[in-house]
Each structure stands twice: as structure tokens, then as C-alpha cells.
Design brief:
196 residues, alpha+beta, Aminopeptidase, eight-stranded mixed sheet, 5 helices
Length: 196
């Protein structure tokens, strides 16, 4: 299980999740300026000038399988996400380091992206658990994770020191294999409702 999971791509109606590469740089550099996402003090989103280094960083980490999120209507990368904290022996991973340009937030793209990644994790990789983490003060992210159907596991207090010197309390959520069919039905329904 040395290379578990191997790189893959998945495509839905609204979004495609593809292995991250430097060919996505220009789209992602533009995307980070939509809403000045890099200015959010409680996230770790690069600015346009730091995008190449962020792509390099994600590609270099052996515990991370990074993706570009492609808007199918434009063919452009509108954000990033990853499988990370990969634990092949225990069939666990985390979906994280996710961000989207502001103009596609609260659209079917995020819901479908998470559906595709969760489906691959549970149905192709036979994961027993998929985890999500976010800064405790990032209420928008916490609510989005809760809308996916993930359960709140707790808070890791003083979990990490951010680049600005603040200390992050991390809210932890998860979906376990036994919950997947219900979560899948709910996400599918949400996408259909968002699109109608």
C-alpha cells in the first residue's frame, strides 16, 4: 500500500477534481484574488505571488494527494483540495486544505466536489473514516462541513501555531463508513436542489 491512494481524477456534472499540477497555476493565482482569500487571518491560502510555492509544497508532501478543482462550465481551476493525513494501514484520510474562489462559494461545486471525493474514498478505497478539520473560529467552514453530514468529533485545543503567530483551536469532524449511504443520499439531494 505504498502509494495508497494512487493519483486519480473524478468528474461530476459541475466540477472535476484532477491531480494538481503547475498547469493550474495561472487559474489558481487568479482565483485567490477573487475575494482576497489570502487576507483571511484564520486560513492558509496563498496570494497570487505565492501560488507556485504552494503548488510545489503540496506536490512535495508524501502524506498529501493534492487536487485542482475545475469548474466544468469554464474549464478553469477555481480552487484546491487534498487527501491528506493519509493512513493506508488504517484506511483513513482527511479531506482538507480546501479553498474556492469567492464567486463559486455556496454553489453546487463544493457539494459535488465533496461528494466525489467521499465516494472515491468509501467506494474505491474502502476507507473506514474520512475526516475534516478547520479553525474553530472559521464558522463558514464549520457550517459547510456540517451541511455535508459530517459529525462533530471535538476540538483539538492549541493544535497549531499559524504563520501570523496566533494559536489555532481545530474543530474535527468525520464521516464513517456506516454513515456513507445516508451522507451520499443527502449530498445528491442537495446538489439536485441547488441546481433546480
Amino acid at each position: 500500500m505504498e502509494n495508497w491512494p494512487a493519483p486519480f481524477l473524478v468528474k461530476g456534472n459541475f466540477v472535476s477534481v484532477v491531480p494538481l499540477s503547475h498547469k493550474h497555476h495561472d487559474d489558481l493565482a487568479e482565483a485567490t484574488t477573487d475575494g482576497d482569500l489570502h487576507k483571511l487571518w484564520y486560513t492558509m491560502i496563498p496570494d497570487a505571488a505565492g501560488m507556485a510555492a504552494e503548488i510545489d509544497r503540496r506536490l512535495a508532501l508524501s502524506s498529501m494527494l493534492p487536487f485542482a478543482i475545475i469548474d466544468n462550465s469554464t474549464g478553469k481551476a477555481v480552487g484546491m483540495t487534498t487527501y491528506m493525513n493519509i493512513d493506508a494501514a488504517n484506511k483513513r484520510l482527511k479531506i482538507g486544505s480546501t479553498w474556492y474562489r469567492k464567486s463559486v462559494q455556496r454553489t453546487p461545486l463544493n457539494t459535488e466536489c465533496k461528494l466525489l471525493l467521499l465516494q472515491y474514498a468509501f467506494e474505491k478505497l474502502n476507507c473506514i473514516c474520512v475526516e475534516f478539520r478547520t479553525h474553530f473560529v472559521n464558522v463558514q467552514s464549520r457550517r459547510a462541513i456540517e451541511r455535508l453530514g459530517a459529525k462533530f468529533d471535538g476540538v483539538l485545543r492549541s493544535n497549531m501555531i499559524l504563520a501570523n503567530g496566533t494559536i489555532r483551536d481545530t474543530a474535527v469532524y468525520s464521516v464513517i463508513a456506516g454513515e456513507w449511504t445516508t451522507v451520499k443520499a443527502n449530498l445528491t439531494w442537495k446538489i439536485e436542489r441547488q441546481h433546480s
